[in-house]
Q: What sequence folds into this?
């Protein structure tokens, strides 16, 4: 009615035909009217696609932290931090958050503190239980111990366990890396051995320890008379370092290091070097620099020899001479000396690569490699070796000759080589030594078989006899089969 401002809530009006439709608080009557009187409008509305910016209610509902989906994402982030050695602050980076929001908009990123105090520690405890369970199933575990110093001048000690699984696969697991504030005396290092063994429930007398050649490590293993072997890669490093300290080698390394450092510092020289590499059709490689490890010196020399024509051409260009007038290339004699050094050290690098394999045990390879290197370097002065090569070979031979000379080391290494099908003939030993190693292995195998038979006899004596009325007792199966059934 005119003048009445109150809205009529009992009816609704169709915008197409202006018909009044009874309204009961829902859209049922209006929808029925459209379907009955305006079917063409209904078909048009259904054929139209939804708006691009239309979002369902589910997109705005955050995942609960206790939901399985959220737990899986949180665990995957913790694994990403742990396996890729990422800092905890990565969860606060804008790019990382944007990536997760794109993959799962409903996921609420936990705080950095949560990953530091909860997620990663839980992952560590879970992984530790798995490793501890695997170690309890092995009969013998070898530990490698490595002491090192960080860039922040903090001293650390890392322990890695190596063992053979039931399926004859070699597994290696880092047990721990801990700060060692105490003095690195033999007593303190030995106490750390016991601490690791106690934490992982390992029997100390059954351990085999692999360490470097430091005197404190050797003394620490002798306190408990542990089975110990020094790292052959570290032994090679000591011998090579002794060769690198020769006056001739040291002087040449200084010259090459000065040239490579110049190309690393100067952008103009580096660009000119790349242009000369393309012009001379050489590989576009950067010059390598020498670090603490000895093989970096050999890599630096080999790369320098590879790029020698491009280096000479770059140093002679006017642009480079203006910014590096005091830098000069090597003479022909220096180049010959560098080639001799690379040739003399190449066998040491090859041996290091062999000992760096992780998929197969390397104890059996030590004795053959050690004997071969001694034989090759003992021939210094024979043949067409230059004075530089003879000097390097002599230095390496003198250092390697005093390694693995004890009777205990020889027996362990020779027995391991004898059990390896590749070296079972022991061609690097004399006939008398071959027979002695064979006799020792046979005697040890017989003693082991006798020990196993005595244990089986004790088990049978302790097994209760079955009652004749109850029938025959079930047959016992090997523990390996029982283990397979359980796991």
A:
């Amino acid at each position: 009615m005119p003048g009445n401002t109150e809205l009529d809530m009992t009816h609704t009006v169709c915008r197409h035909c202006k018909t009044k439709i009874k309204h009961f608080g829902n859209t049922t009557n209006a929808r029925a009217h459209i379907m009955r009187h305006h079917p063409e409008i209904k078909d048009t509305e259904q054929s139209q696609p939804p708006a691009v910016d239309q979002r369902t209610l589910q997109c705005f509902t955050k995942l609960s932290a206790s939901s399985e989906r959220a737990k899986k994402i949180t665990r995957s982030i913790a694994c990403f931090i742990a396996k890729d050695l990422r800092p905890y602050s990565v969860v606060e980076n804008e790019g990382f958050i944007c990536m997760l929001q794109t993959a799962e908009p409903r996921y609420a990123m936990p705080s950095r503190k949560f990953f530091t105090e909860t997620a990663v520690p839980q992952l560590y405890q879970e992984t530790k239980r798995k490793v501890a369970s695997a170690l309890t199933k092995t009969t013998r575990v070898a530990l490698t111990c490595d002491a090192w110093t960080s860039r922040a001048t903090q001293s650390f000690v890392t322990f890695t366990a190596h063992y053979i699984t039931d399926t004859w696969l070699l597994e290696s697991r880092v047990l721990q890396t801990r700060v060692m504030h105490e003095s690195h005396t033999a007593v303190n290092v030995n106490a750390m051995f016991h601490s690791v063994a106690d934490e992982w429930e390992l029997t100390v007398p059954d351990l085999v320890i692999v360490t470097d050649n430091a005197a404190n490590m050797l003394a620490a293993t002798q306190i408990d008379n542990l089975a110990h072997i020094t790292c052959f890669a570290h032994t090679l490093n000591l011998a090579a370092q002794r060769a690198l300290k020769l006056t001739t080698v040291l002087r040449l390394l200084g010259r090459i290091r000065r040239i490579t450092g110049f190309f690393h510092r100067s952008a103009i020289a580096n660009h000119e070097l790349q242009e000369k590499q393309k012009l001379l059709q050489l590989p576009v490689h950067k010059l390598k620099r020498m670090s603490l490890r000895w093989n970096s010196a050999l890599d630096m020399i080999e790369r320098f020899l590879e790029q020698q024509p491009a280096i000479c051409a770059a140093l002679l260009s006017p642009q480079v001479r203006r910014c590096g007038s005091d830098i000069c290339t090597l003479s022909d004699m220096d180049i010959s000396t560098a080639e001799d050094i690379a040739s003399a050290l190449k066998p040491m690098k090859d041996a290091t690569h062999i000992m760096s394999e992780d998929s197969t045990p390397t104890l059996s390879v030590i004795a053959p490699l050690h004997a071969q290197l001694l034989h090759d370097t003992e021939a210094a002065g024979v043949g067409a070796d230059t004075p530089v090569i003879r000097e390097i070979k002599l230095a390496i031979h003198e250092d390697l000759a005093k390694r693995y000379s004890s009777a205990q080391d020889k027996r362990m290494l020779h027995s391991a080589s004898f059990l390896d099908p590749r070296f079972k003939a022991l061609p690097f030993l004399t006939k008398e030594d071959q027979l002695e190693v064979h006799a020792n292995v046979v005697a040890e195998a017989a003693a082991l078989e006798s020990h196993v038979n005595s244990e089986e006899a004790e088990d049978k004596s302790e097994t209760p006899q079955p009652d004749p009325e109850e029938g025959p007792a079930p047959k016992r199966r090997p523990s390996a089969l029982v283990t397979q059934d359980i796991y």
